[in-house]
Design a protein that fits this description.
Blueprint: E1 3-11, H1 17-27, E2 31-43, E3 49-54, H2 57-68, E4 75-78, H3 84-97, E5 103-105, H4 121-128, E6 135-136, H5 140-147, H6 155-166, E7 173-175, E8 189-192, E9 197-200, H7 213-226, H8 231-246, E10 250-251, E11 257-258, H9 261-264
Parallel strand pairs: 1-2, 1-4, 4-5, 5-6
Antiparallel strand pairs: 2-3, 7-8, 8-9, 10-11
Helix pairs in contact: 1-7, 3-4, 5-6, 7-8
Protein name: pyridoxal kinase
Family: Belongs to the ThiD family.
EC number: 2.7.1.35
Length: about 270
């Protein structure tokens, strides 16, 4: 059985982060390791306001050593790394491992909203992490931050952002939700590997039940790469999984909802 490590945050509501990653890896018949970088909570008495509690670097390092040095891994997926110091430390680890196996960088910069988690957070991801990515999977906000653009407001903007992100050193980029800035709206994602530019289409579903979609998409990409699929195949298959899951999205409470995880794995033969 192939082994995959997620270095990411714990989502106390269960829909995103480490929880979504390990659920995805298991469905792909992969052995999942985790290294927690942060615990994210939600306050039910304050309109689901997020609390962000970073984990100390020594503890993160011990977790990474358990998986990487203690057993060995076949792929790594990065999620929320909440401070520039943690980002820099993980990057040092990736430098020592460079080229040994695929790495997916989900450049998580926010819990919800449009501001980076901490000062200099976006620039730390841009400068230290993206260059190690076999595939990086930013949403529109994150892609704009990585590309040094104010906003992405059109397909052409997304193409420009993808070109700029590739110059940071990654092998491929998949910008999610590009279809939301197109007419008519779709759920299309944009894949670019420096040669092929591919718009992966999907029907737009008007819903706010999108909690964990970015994490789950990136986890599918990482799992597919771990299993030997190409970059392009890994992204296209991940998109298929998300499209299937979003057809039957559901609420968790009055504030948040998510995709149907069971539906998102039907393409795997469940």
């Amino acid at each position: 059985m192939k082994k995959i490590l997620t270095i990411a945050g714990s989502d106390s509501s269960g829909g995103a982060g480490i929880q979504a990653d390990l659920r995805t890896f298991a469905k792909h018949d992969l052995y999942g390791f985790c290294a927690l970088t942060v615990i994210v909570t939600m306050d039910p008495d304050n309109k689901w306001a997020h609390g962000v509690y970073p984990i100390d670097i020594a503890t993160i390092d011990a977790q990474m050593a358990t998986a990487i040095d203690g057993v060995g891994v076949d792929a790594i997926k990065l999620g929320m790394l909440p401070t520039p110091e943690i980002i820099s430390h993980v990057a040092t680890r990736l430098e020592a491992l460079k080229g040994q196996f695929p790495v997916v960088v989900d450049p998580v910069m926010v819990c919800k909203g449009d501001k980076p988690l901490f000062p200099e957070h976006a620039s730390a991801i841009k400068e230290n992490l993206v260059k190690y990515a076999t595939v990086t999977t930013p949403n529109l906000f994150e892609a704009a931050q990585l590309a040094g653009m104010e906003k992405i407001e059109s397909y052409d903007d997304a193409v420009l952002a993808a070109e700029k992100i590739m110059k940071l050193g990654c092998k491929a980029v998949a910008i999610t939700n590009v279809g939301s800035v197109m007419e008519p709206k779709t759920s299309a994602d944009l894949y670019f590997d420096g040669e092929e530019l591919l718009l992966i289409e999907g029907i737009h579903i008007e819903t706010n039940h999108t909690h964990g979609l970015g994490c789950t998409f990136a986890a599918h990409v990482a799992a597919n790469l771990c299993k030997g699929y190409s970059k392009r195949e890994s992204v296209v298959l991940a998109k298929d999984a998300i499209k299937a899951g979003m057809k039957h999205h559901f609420p968790l409470n009055e504030y948040v909802g998510t995709l149907d995880f069971a539906e998102s794995f039907k393409h795997l033969g469940d």
